Amino acid sequence: MANTATGEKQGVFRVDSPYQPAGDQPTAIAGLVDGIHSGLAHQTLLGVTGSGKTFTVANVIQEVQRPSIIMAHN
């Protein structure tokens, strides 16, 4: 992947975690990735506090390898 502004190579995004997606996370990851590949401009991931939403989105970014901004507030 190259930075179009500078032509410099960008690194590959990888989730560095001892944990693997579990429970509903693999289904959510697959659904969000499918939505991205289908061209959906907006998607929403809902979950209670501590359910792993940020981890899930990190795994989506790892899968699609696109530049991303995550807004995760508390």
- Global mean pLDDT: 90
Question: What separation lies between the terminal Cα atoms?
Answer: 32 Å
Globally, the shape reads globular
Helical content stands at: 25-40%
Beta-strand share of residues? under 5%
Order of secondary-structure elements: HH
Biggest pleated-sheet summary: none
What class, by secondary structure content? mainly alpha
Regions with pLDDT < 50 over 5+ consecutive residues?
none
Number of strands: 0
DSSP helical segment count: 2
> What is the C-alpha radius of gyration, as a whole number of Å?
14 Å
Assembly type of the chains comes to single chain
Write the layout of secondary structure elements.
Blueprint: H1 25-37, H2 53-64
Helix pairs in contact: 1-2
Provide key terms for this protein.
single chain; 34% helix; mainly alpha; 74 residues
Q: Your description of this structure?
A:
By secondary structure, this protein is mostly helical. It has a domain at 32-40 and 50-66. Helices cover 34% and strands 0% of the residues. It is built from two helices and no strands. The chain has helices at 25-37, 53-64. Helix 1 crosses helix 2. The longest helix is centred in the middle third of the chain and has 13 residues, at 25-37. The protein is globular and about 40 Å long. The mean pLDDT is 90.
